[in-house]
Amino acid sequence: MAAAADTNVLSSPYQHSIADYWNREKDPVNLKLGDVSGTYHHHYGIGEVDQSVLAGPEETREARIIAEMHRLETAQATLLLDHLGEPDAGARLLDAGSGRGGTSFMAHERFGCRVDGISISQSQVSFANDQVQRRGLGSAVRFHLKNMLDTGFETGAFRGIWNNESTMYVELAQLFKEHARLLSRGGRYVTITGCYNDAYGLPSRAVSQINAHYICNVHPRSTYFKEMVANRLVPAQVIDLTEATIPYWELRAKSSVATGIEEAFLTAYRSGSFQYLLIAADRV
């Protein structure tokens, strides 16, 4: 049954490779952080680090670091939701590339809206829907095995849509065409993403290392704005979060859940070849 569903959702060998990667993923940097509060994210963090976590008894040092990293990743999701506007409780929201569901649950708790999350990873969808049951949310939050480029949802169904570090797995022209179809007029789209800096030139070596590590394709900054405008998504707010995310990566590099990619991120950010942006756009 799962194989048949995959055939309907996945449209290329590349998408199959991404689904396989995330179906097999059990990275402690996602799971251990999520265990802190029971809300599991698949993205990075922002904000100043509480340096006191590095002091104190050695036997509890790692637990303090993990809790602090979780606080920073939750702050990132909170900032994203801050830019969705104030959808009323009757609105419907879409989390495109929802991972294990963290931002979706935060959105429902904050706004009271119905939230749909989508992923091409059956493992992620099953994990997130198990969380729905554990939280007793019924149909208020639901996760689906769907392709964000061709969701099958009805036109104009959503008041808000976001991608939280998931745009680097798809062609932006196709993604924003589908988002524009799904959003009602006046609806809000928000993304937080890493992108390479066009002013630097072609992707740096560090950016290429990031692509190889996550089997992704980091887009140039300019392509986001070009394809948004081409698809009736008009940028309303742009925030450069590069400096705000560096403390997270410095702390992560000192933790037991470091994966080896930390130095590439820090090098790319510090060199100016890579940027971490929040872009909020209105559907016109």
Number of helices: 11
Run of helices and strands = HHHHEHEHEEHEHHEHHE
Provide mean pLDDT, rounded. Answer: 95
Rg over C-alpha atoms, rounded to the nearest angstrom: 18 Å
Largest β-sheet summary: 7 strands, mixed
Shape: globular
Count of distinct strands: 7
Which regions are unreliable across 5 or more consecutive residues at pLDDT < 50?
1-5
**Biggest sheet: strand arrangement:** 3-2-1-4-5-7-6
Give the proportion of residues in helices.
Answer: 40-55%
Q: What is this structure, in a nutshell?
A:
With 284 residues, this protein is of the alpha/beta class. It contains 11 helices and 7 strands.
What is the topology?
Blueprint (H helix, E strand, L loop, with lengths): L1 H8 L3 H12 L3 H8 L25 H22 L9 E5 L5 H10 L2 E6 L2 H14 L5 E5 L12 E7 L7 H11 E14 L8 H10 L6 H10 L2 E8 L1 H12 L8 H10 L2 E10 L1
Parallel strand pairs: 1-2, 1-4, 2-3, 4-5
Antiparallel strand pairs: 5-7, 6-7
Helix pairs in contact: 4-5, 7-9, 8-11, 10-11
Describe this entry's structure for a reader:
- It is a single chain.
- The protein is of the alpha/beta class and 284 residues long.
- It contains 11 helices and 7 strands.
- The protein has helices at 2-9, 13-24, 28-35, 61-82, 102-111, 122-135, 172-182, 205-214, 221-230, 242-253, 262-271; strands spanning 92-96, 114-119, 141-145, 158-164, 183-196, 233-240, 274-283.
- A 7-stranded mixed beta sheet has the order 3-2-1-4-5-7-6, with helices on both faces.
- β1, α5 (102-111) and β2 form a beta-alpha-beta unit.
- α8 (205-214) runs antiparallel to α11.
- The radius of gyration is 18 Å and the shape is globular.
- Mean pLDDT is 95; it is low at 1-5.
